[in-house]
């Protein structure tokens, strides 16, 4: 039997997804993207957090360029919209997702990483948007997700010059949230995933659904949306438990 493109392992509430195309530096083929989307469409029961990483020392070298050459304009648009749907599924599917990043986080790899919520980088990480060197443009959401992290000005410069940001620069810019020693990205990702899994699930869900959307709203709409989110979470059984646990000086036992 051939190797799976995506290896999924669950350990209690944490699912680990390993992109398994090491020989292609985990370049994102349509089939691999479909596997990732399939997982987030219907995560296994009991899973509360996902970790995403790549086998073989690289997170993801971006779009599989060997598949790209055969598409016309119409199908390139559909393909790009397919990436948007898949990466929206990761960002808004309901599970917090932690990226454990090594090596290439390039092109579509960076688009993928920025659809995840927590990003841990090892020192060898390279963030790059080399589309200009390939005669193409981003299509997996970078103008929105990377642009909002870096700002349009810095993203334009990054794309025009094809510069590579390292892990520490990525940390300063917000492309990574943590930089850890070599070999430690998965260790840190598991630690963070375990901590996130202990939160009330509804609180995690609302964080994921609301905060990025509120960023797109006017101040007035955002504040109103925040109040609605507060109304939903603050009146949940988990809120009663969380507040009682605090006052009784014990760990909360969420549903
Ligand atoms: C690939 C890809 C790929 C590697 N598509 N096959 N992304 C890029 O422009 C990045 C292109 N890749 C690289 O710059 C380098 O491969 C790396 C820096 C990631 C790694 O270098 P290295 O020396 O370790 O490996 P390598 O020898 O360059 O690559 C190993 C194999 O992976 C080789 O195949 P082989 O059959 O010759 O062994 C490479 O061809 C293959 N490979 N990356 C296809 N990306 C939704 S739109 C998003 C638009 C983009 O993502 S554009 C950016 C695409």
From TrEMBL:
Instruction: Write down the InterPro entries for this protein, in alphabetical order.
Output: ClpP/crotonase-like_dom_sf (IPR029045), Enoyl-CoA_hyd/isom_CS (IPR018376), Enoyl-CoA_hydra/iso (IPR001753), Enoyl-CoA_hydra_C (IPR014748)
Extract the CDD domains matched here.
Answer: crotonase-like
Task: Tell me one GO molecular function of this protein.
Answer: enoyl-CoA hydratase activity
GO BP = fatty acid beta-oxidation
Q: Which residues form a coiled coil?
A: none
UniProt EC number? 4.2.1.17
Keywords carried by this UniProt record: Lyase
Record-stated family: Belongs to the enoyl-CoA hydratase/isomerase family.
> In its UniProt entry, what is this protein called?
Enoyl-CoA hydratase
Organism this protein belongs to: Rhodosalinus halophilus
Q: What is the lineage of its organism?
A: Bacteria, Pseudomonadati, Pseudomonadota, Alphaproteobacteria, Rhodobacterales
């Amino acid at each position: 039997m051939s190797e799976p493109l995506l290896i999924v392992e669950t350990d209690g509430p944490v699912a680990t997804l390993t992109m398994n195309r090491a020989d292609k530096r985990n370049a994102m083929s349509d089939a691999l993207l479909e596997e990732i989307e399939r997982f987030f469409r219907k995560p296994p029961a009991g899973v509360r957090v996902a970790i995403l990483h790549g086998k073989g020392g690289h997170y993801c070298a971006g779009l599989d360029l060997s598949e790209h050459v055969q598409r016309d304009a119409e199908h390139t648009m559909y393909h790009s919209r397919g990436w948007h749907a898949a990466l929206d599924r990761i960002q808004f599917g309901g599970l917090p997702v932690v990226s454990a990043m090594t090596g290439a986080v390039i092109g579509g790899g960076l688009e993928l990483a920025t659809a995840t919520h927590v990003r841990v980088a090892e020192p060898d990480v390279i963030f790059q948007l080399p589309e200009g060197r390939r005669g193409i443009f981003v299509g997996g959401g970078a103008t929105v997700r990377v642009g909002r992290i870096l700002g349009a000005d810095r993203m334009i410069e990054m794309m025009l010059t094809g510069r590579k940001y390292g892990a520490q620069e990525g940390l300063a810019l917000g492309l990574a949230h943590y930089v850890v020693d070599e070999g430690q990205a998965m260790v840190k990702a598991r630690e963070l995933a375990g901590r996130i899994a202990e939160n009330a699930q509804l609180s995690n869900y609302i964080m994921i659904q609301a905060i990025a959307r509120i960023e797109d709203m006017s101040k007035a709409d955002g504040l109103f949306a925040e109040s609605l989110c507060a109304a939903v979470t603050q009146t949940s059984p988990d809120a009663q438990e969380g507040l009682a646990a605090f006052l009784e000086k014990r760990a909360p036992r969420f549903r």
